[in-house]
């Protein structure tokens, strides 16, 4: 509903009659129009004003108190001399009288100071009333907000999540139009490696898998959650029966898919049973740095998952070193269909799949951008210009997670994620 902050950014009709639109999710804090929020803002402004007044008052009082202290001795001396003068004014000569006048003149600046003290005392009374009023307002807001207990707020959040999920289900696959700034999750491991979450599990499963290094490795760490991964705690270790090559691994529906070292064999390792369920050779696929990405690292074979399933990206001598994209059966590892993209793999920094489209970066170093897109549904390609910030200047793994709609990256010993912006097509004629 527009009342909740949703907006249709652009809309158009495709030749086949489908409605194409871009929807803008409500910005965080859209409830700023709420009465409570307005009251809280006004309360904050008043508190800031009172704070400023108190600072000025404190500074002025400190300054005036210093002046009063400095004149204290003068006032005591003058008091004793006036007492003597009043007892025997006949003994007061002209010189003594003149000296007394001078001392009195020195005390004249004390009068405005004392007047200021009177004004400040009135200000203190005013501030006291303001604080009393603010306390009443705060109590009223607290009582109103207290009407929503934790359970009710939690139910509201769950309802909103369900509505958002239902909305996303109406959205078909999207075209990549932008990549966010990088979000560094952790700095650990060597310069090269791979980390990921399962691309096809319920959202409650937040396990993270971590594989340091790009060849001969067999040790996979499974963290219980992202929080545990960040802290480096609460993990179990899987020791693979066959070492891996490269960093193009992916976890899909409880299994790890990876390239067996010194071969073009694809391996499916099942985490729960801790066993290899199937392994199969990718016919003609190069290995052992025959056709890696530009950064090397035995990255000849790269497994990926998107909304359409499991993919393998590699190349062969028959394809003259150009990137081949293959749909792979996740159960048997059989190649279902392949596409020759025409893009030389050694010129690619990294690549990833979104909605059946292969996106290729032009470099793994600083200044990289998403430069090339190959559409498997039409067997066509285009050159793109989608910038992204390569913060640590050496990407050795870049994968899309369709469940979370983010890019996972291993960047020079840093584990980083990027949010993506997709242009979506509405699946049904229903309203969002």
TrEMBL record:
Gene Ontology biological process: signal transduction
Keywords assigned: Coiled coil, Disulfide bond, Glycoprotein, Secreted, Signal, Synapse
Statement: the UniProt record of this protein carries the keyword Glycoprotein: yes
Cell compartments where the protein resides: Secreted; Synapse
Domain Olfactomedin-like: 172-424
GO cellular component, one term: extracellular space
UniProt key word Cytoplasm: no
Pfam families, sorted: Noelin-1, OLF
Disulfide bonds: 173-355
Superkingdom: Eukaryota
Protein name: NOE2 protein
